[in-house]
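To the wet lab folks,

You asked to see what we're planning to order before we commit. Fair enough. Below is the target structure as C-alpha cells, and below that is the sequence we designed to fit it. If anything looks off to you, flag it before the synthesis order goes out.
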C-alpha cells in the first residue's frame, strides 16, 4: 500500500462553507512535495470546534483508491 503525509489547517467556517458539499475535494501539498487531491468527507470525523488541524497519514492502494486516514503526531 502507498501512503502520503499531509499537514492540514482548515477553519470550521471554511470547512462548512467549502467542504461540506458532497463531492468536494481538498487540494493540498504532501510533505514529500506532491500535490494531492482527496474527498473532503474523509476529514469529517476530525472536525473539532477549532476546525481540522494536524498531520494526517492517508493510505491508498496501488490503484490510488482510498483505504484509510489517521491523525499522526
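Sequence we intend to order:
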Amino acid at each position: 500500500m502507498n501512503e502520503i503525509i499531509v499537514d492540514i489547517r482548515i477553519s470550521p467556517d471554511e470547512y462548512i462553507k467549502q467542504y461540506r458539499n458532497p463531492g468536494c475535494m481538498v487540494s493540498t501539498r504532501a510533505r514529500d512535495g506532491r500535490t494531492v487531491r482527496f474527498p473532503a468527507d474523509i476529514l469529517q470525523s476530525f472536525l473539532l470546534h477549532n476546525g481540522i488541524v494536524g498531520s494526517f497519514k492517508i493510505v491508498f492502494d496501488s490503484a490510488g483508491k482510498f483505504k484509510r486516514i489517521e491523525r499522526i503526531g
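Structural context that might help your review: The chain has a mean pLDDT of 92. Helices lie at 12-19.

Thanks,
Computational group
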